[in-house]
Design a protein that fits this description.
Layout: H1 14-21, E1 36-41, E2 44-49, E3 63-66, E4 69-72, E5 74-79, E6 85-91, E7 98-103, E8 107-109, E9 112-115, E10 120-129, E11 132-141, E12 147-156, H2 162-165, E13 175-180, E14 185-191, E15 197-205, E16 210-212, E17 215-222, E18 227-236, H3 247-261, E19 267-270, H4 273-289, E20 290-293, E21 296-299, H5 311-320, H6 327-338, E22 358-359, H7 363-366, E23 374-375, H8 381-396, H9 400-417, E24 463-464, H10 465-484, H11 488-509, E25 510-511, E26 516-517, E27 520-521, H12 534-541, H13 546-556, H14 589-601, H15 605-621, H16 653-656, H17 658-667, E28 669-672, E29 677-681, E30 691-699, E31 702-711, E32 714-723, E33 727-731
Helix pairs in contact: 5-6, 5-8, 6-8, 6-9, 8-9, 8-10, 9-10, 10-11, 10-12, 12-14, 14-15, 14-17, 15-17
Length: about 725
């Protein structure tokens, strides 16, 4: 009788698979025990839970972070070693601060009830300002007797690099320490492997009853109906001689700065109160994501994982907001021009003329444990830079910046026609130059995002469909800039190059059997015959022929793509379709916004209205009326909201800009600086908007206030006020 042998099964941990296939995957190992809230000011942000604590509950990327390093990993408030009860937790509507209301649970001494729950009211007020986290803890006794209790603040830090927080493992780390610096100050320090000393300085006012390197304990004897307050500051890398200013002075200065930031932007009012809330939240989110840099304001990509300069995200966000506040584009263009690649560096995927993808200031980036100190591994940032520069000049008439940026524009065009097209076939392609970099370098940069119809991953030098559209639009835009500079021959050359690209593109990418465009060409020039939203972004660039644009649009509005909430990134039925994936079936608001601009370009305003309404309805279900980076691509069901994606950035810049872009697409806004004219091409308001008022819509030195009203499928225009010389007109071309 044969002996049965047990089958041997080797199970490779998913984390090990992902470390190879997707080295910068962001894991989600369990649900958040408490909801998270975020605050940001310039290069500092904090992720707290609903109690105002850091690191007290599982499931969140908690911490106080500055330039990609965590400066506080734990800050927990307890009463007599017990967690207080949550009454409420609210961000201010301008995102300038978090207020948390807490109360005491029933507190016992052995079996004896010392005092009942709901006796002590605690209000935590938290904000960030110039690299310092401020907190005021207000305490009031609503009981009839003196309340005696200990209020403890428990804290600690690991000085983890942001990539460690995201899940990266390190073989070695630096050395941390903690010490008391007087009766009211604790200094936590870390000497990194990069030989940089990082410090967190915690200062308490008044001085605690007992202070240690990881706790501050206040023993309070609070008479009935009396109140007191404790103030805490946590400073990131500030010198010992630099004392934080008073809490209330900093709070007022912070709020004044936030109000000033948008003082020149167009103000929008509508007849729909929920949509007004969506717009207010979007503007507040963009406000905190804006970071003052030496080159101007720059929208950092998102919190918590992408709170830094990203080329693609900054360029697209600036493009989305160009009609409201063109000053954002000016800051983005100047900053990216300043960091344009000058030399070849394979680890950084850098080549002369390329525009930055991402920059990081943490220890791992400095040591090149990750390649992102200055990383250029995006194939689309460079053409988007050229495109935004041209659109900014058209929008504003500001030709002075054109003189400043033209060398960077020419260098970018040189990369597009040179190293960006390694085989000389006229298409811009990418291939990761090192094992440490990103395998896919378009906006869909997951390791499995670019694939063939059978699901196999594309290999070799990959030419993405939408990138060719960006290049086409960039060359057209650069040609107009060249004419403005008097460079007529260069303008003609760029126009001819754009026309040749459009012809080659139609021949190589059009899929007649699918009636859409290929996702990409792989290294063997085989088209990835997959129906994706990338084809929709082509409409935005204008590279698509009129008849084929209508075929693409019709496909995108069918149920396989359009869920009722928005357009999926990948159609149902494709090999790697998964509505819960990051890029292969989810819904990205910014993707839908660019598609909406493309639909408007081809006069398809009915489809614009569907996309607009879907995303508005989705936002109305979201916490704070805030559109996330992405959400799941499940079909819309009656009496149910959209399904969230667990590790989406909140807030995220181009998602926050999306409601403004959808309004732009619906109104068909066009700006002609040379004629001082604003045109509304085929304007159409969705059914949930009966009226829109735009105040302070600027063009050059002039501005105008407009009221638009919906009349079924028509829109009427009323000019409420003008400042300077400006013309406004409606153009109907359908």
């Amino acid at each position: 009788m044969a002996t049965k042998r047990a089958a041997q099964i080797t199970i490779t941990p998913l984390s090990d698979i992902l470390a190879v296939e997707s080295p910068f995957y962001i894991p989600m190992t369990g649900p958040s025990a408490r909801p998270r809230r975020t605050l940001k000011h310039d290069d500092t942000f904090v992720v707290l839970d609903s109690h105002g604590d850091i690191g007290a509950s599982a499931g969140g990327p908690d911490g106080l972070f500055n330039t990609d390093t965590r400066y506080l990993a734990r800050l927990e408030l307890v009463l007599n070693d017990m967690q207080p009860l949550l009454l409420g937790s609210n961000l201010r509507n301008d995102n300038s601060g978090l207020t948390v209301d807490l109360t005491n649970p029933d507190i016992y001494d052995g079996d004896r009830l010392v005092f009942r729950k709901d006796t002590i009211h605690i209000v935590r007020t938290i904000f960030l300002w110039r690299g310092i986290a401020y907190q005021r803890i207000g305490i009031q006794n609503h009981g009839e007797q003196t309340a005696s209790f200990d209020l403890s603040l428990l804290f600690d830090n690991d000085f983890a690099d942001l990539f460690e927080v995201r899940g990266e493992r390190r073989a070695r780390r630096g050395v941390g320490s903690g010490e008391l610096s007087g009766p009211a100050t604790v200094v936590l320090s870390y000497v990194g492997l990069d030989d940089i000393v990082r410090t967190s300085r915690l200062h308490f006012d008044p001085r605690p009853t007992r202070l240690a390197v990881n706790s501050a304990i206040y023993h309070l004897d609070l008479p009935p109906q009396q109140s007191t307050a404790i103030f805490l500051t946590v400073s990131c890398n500030t010198p010992a001689t630099e004392v934080p200013g008073p809490f209330f002075r900093g709070l007022l200065a912070h709020r004044r700065e936030m109000r000033r930031a948008w003082s020149g932007a167009t103000n929008i009012e509508t007849s729909n109160n929920i949509f007004n809330e969506v717009l207010c939240q979007s503007m507040a989110d963009l406000n905190i994501l804006m970071t003052q840099t030496p080159h101007g304001r720059y929208p950092y990509a998102g919190i918590p994982w992408y709170s830094t300069t990203f080329g693609r995200d900054g360029l697209i966000t600036a493009l989305q907001m160009l009609w409201i506040d063109p000053g954002i584009a000016r800051g983005v263009l100047r900053r990216l021009a300043a960091f344009q690649a000058q030399a070849v560096d394979p680890l950084a995927d850098a080549e002369p003329g390329k525009i930055l993808h991402e920059m990081r200031g943490g220890e791992m980036a400095a040591l090149r444990e990750v390649p992102f100190e200055r990383y250029y591994g995006s194939v689309d940032s460079t053409p988007l830079f050229v495109l935004l520069a041209g659109l900014y000049v058209e929008r504003t008439g500001d030709e002075s910046i054109l003189d400043e940026l033209w060398p960077a524009i020419e260098a970018a065009l040189g990369w597009i026609d040179g190293p960006g097209d390694p085989d000389g076939d006229g298409f811009v392609e990418y291939r990761c130059a090192s094992e440490q970099g990103l395998a896919n370098q378009g906006w869909k940069d997951s390791f499995d995002a670019i694939f063939h119809a059978d699901g196999t991953l594309a290999e070799g030098n990959i030419a993405l469909a939408e990138v060719q559209g960006y290049v086409f639009a960039a060359k057209r835009s650069a040609a107009r800039c060249a004419r403005a500079l008097g460079l007529t021959d260069r303008a003609r050359e760029l126009e001819r190059a754009a026309d040749r690209l459009a012809a080659r593109f139609e021949e190589a990418f059009w899929l007649p059997d699918l009636r859409t465009y290929a996702l990409a060409l792989d290294g063997k020039k085989r088209p990835c015959k997959v129906r994706t939203s990338n084809a929709g972004q082509l409409l935005f660039t204008g590279i698509v022929q009129e008849d084929r644009a209508r075929m693409v649009a019709a496909d995108l509005m069918r149920p396989a793509f359009f869920t009722g909430w928005g357009i999926r990134t990948v159609s149902i039925g494709e090999a790697r379709y998964n509505p819960m994936s990051y890029h292969n079936g989810s819904i990205w608001p910014h993707d839908n916004a660019l598609i909406a601009l493309g639909l408007a370009r081809y006069g398809l305003k009915h489809s614009v209205e569907h996309v607009f309404k879907g995303l508005f309805d989705a936002a109305s279900y979201m916490d704070l009326r805030r559109l996330p980076e992405l959400f799941c691509g499940f079909r819309r069901e009656p009496r149910r909201g959209p399904t969230l994606y667990p590790v989406a950035c909140l807030p995220q810049a181009w998602a926050s800009a999306t409601p403004f872009t959808l309004l732009e697409a619906a109104l068909g806004l066009e700006f002609d600086a040379a004629r001082n004219e604003i045109r509304l091409r085929n304007p159409r308001l969705p059914a949930f908007l009966n009226e829109v008022i735009l105040r302070g819509l600027h063009l050059g030195e002039s501005s105008v206030d407009l009221r638009l009203r919906r009349h079924d499928e028509d829109v009427s225009l009323e000019v409420l006020r003008t400042r300077g010389h400006i013309q406004v007109s409606i153009v109907m071309t359908r």
